[in-house]
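$ ./design --mode recover --in tokens.txt
reading tokens...
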């Protein structure tokens, strides 16, 4: 039963109605769409989700980083409804609409790229990645793409080829795209420094692919699915220098790090390093399907008419929502709030690490933080079973947490940035109780 103010648990978890719908899903929905939680959403607002049994949870998964402005923010709902009332679709390249142009202008002004910037919009993060590579290939007339160990860039075939986790993402799905080369990503906790990673990249130029054949290097400033591993400053600066030296396009995949998650609007701003292209999606439109590529005009303009596009790309309802999302960021100071949330969460995570040595590492930027579970802090053996146990204990107490990491042995914090201090305190208290229940 309810013991806290926001979380309200009225049935066992999952409740009877959720169980019944999940059973139907087992019969009607394809198995690979496996469910993280056995609860079924009925409504959601701000930082909470209420299920079909009337239980209210605090949502630290945030639709996997898609809900930085919170669930169903009223201003965003109103903007989307108003657009839906006027028209829902024309195909921008058949009959254009102003909201597309305004969004391109506003995001172009925010992205940390100097000089003329242009935008193109799509539906999902994976499409932004695929199209960024298309722009890079068209502009350089080269084919190879370099990506990193631990990377996640999506699940369509080119982006899946760039992704680094075999199970469950790649197993049984080859052959993958040719001309994709993978090199180490700096991972301080596991002994890979920025210098090691840059050396490996130089070796790859000598051993695997000549730099003159490389169209793009694609990097997540903070690896998302890979375990919230933060790229060091000297690594990002080193990538920029190598790209400049060899005429390679530097693509920052900010699908998970963008929209204030790391304490800046774009994570690249932490580095003072300008990418050439930036991929955005997730929190851009409060969960409505929208993604984009923002980049240097000369790269974005390189293709001939029709080289990129798609029936649904840049949907006007999602774009109206995206403009309202930008307004909410400004009016509610969400970028600054991300930094504050990050300080509070990091402080709690560090105290947990002192209490439970199986928490081997605490890392992240701003409000993009994770803890990594290991068995034996010396061996640092990944311990996904501990992460799973904590997630299960948190669920029964009303907090939704999700894992990340190549071994799924990390738990990440992706709370909506509209979370209040009281909600944050309540959620961290529940997280701590779940740790104690699973680990003591
Ligand atoms: N790139 C990054 C960094 C991501 O985190 C994700 C999704 O988690 C993607 C790309 C793919 O986005 P989508 O699932 O919208 O295709």
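writing sequence...
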């Amino acid at each position: 039963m309810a013991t806290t103010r926001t979380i309200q648990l009225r049935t066992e978890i999952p409740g009877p109605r959720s169980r019944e719908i999940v059973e139907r899903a087992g019969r009607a929905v394809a198995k690979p769409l496996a469910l993280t939680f056995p609860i079924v959403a009925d409504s959601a607002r701000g930082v909470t989700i209420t299920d079909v049994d009337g239980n209210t949870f605090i949502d630290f998964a945030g639709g996997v980083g898609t809900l930085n402005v919170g669930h169903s923010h009223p201003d965003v709902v109103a903007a989307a409804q108003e657009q839906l009332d006027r028209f829902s679709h024309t195909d921008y390249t058949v009959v254009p609409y102003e909201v597309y142009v305004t969004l391109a202008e506003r995001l172009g002004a925010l992205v940390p790229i100097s000089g003329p910037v242009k935008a193109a919009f799509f539906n999902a993060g994976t499409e932004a990645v695929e199209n960024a590579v298309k722009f890079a290939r068209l502009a350089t007339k080269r084919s190879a793409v370099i990506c990193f160990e631990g990377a996640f860039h999506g699940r369509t075939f080119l982006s899946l080829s760039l992704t680094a986790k075999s199970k469950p993402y790649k197993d049984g799905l080859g052959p993958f795209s040719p001309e994709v080369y993978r090199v180490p990503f700096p991972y301080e906790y596991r002994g890979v420094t920025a210098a090691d990673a840059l050396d490996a990249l130089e070796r790859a130029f000598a051993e695997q692919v000549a730099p003159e054949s490389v169209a793009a290097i694609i990097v997540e400033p903070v690896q998302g699915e890979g375990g919230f591993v933060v790229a060091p400053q000297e690594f990002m600066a080193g990538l920029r220098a190598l790209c400049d030296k060899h005429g390679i396009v530097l693509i920052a995949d900010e699908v998970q790090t963008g929209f204030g998650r790391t304490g800046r609007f774009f994570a690249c701003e932490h580095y003072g390093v300008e990418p050439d292209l930036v991929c955005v999606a997730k929190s851009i439109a409060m969960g409505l399907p929208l993604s984009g590529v923002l980049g240097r005009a000369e790269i974005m303009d390189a293709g001939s008419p029709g080289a990129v596009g798609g029936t649904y790309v840049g949907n006007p309802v999602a774009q109206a929502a995206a403009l309202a999302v930008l307004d909410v960021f400004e009016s509610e100071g969400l970028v600054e709030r991300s930094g504050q949330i990050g300080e509070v969460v990091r402080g709690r995570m560090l105290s947990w690490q002192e209490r439970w040595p199986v928490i081997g590492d605490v890392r992240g930027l701003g409000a993009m933080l994770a803890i990594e579970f290991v068995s034996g802090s010396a061996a640092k053996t990944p311990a996904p079973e501990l992460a799973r146990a904590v997630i299960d204990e948190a669920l029964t107490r009303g907090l939704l947490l999700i894992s990340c990491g190549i071994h799924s042995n990390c738990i990440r914090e992706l709370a909506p940035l509209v979370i209040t201090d009281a909600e944050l305190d309540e959620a961290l208290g529940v997280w701590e109780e779940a740790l104690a229940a699973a680990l003591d």
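exit 0
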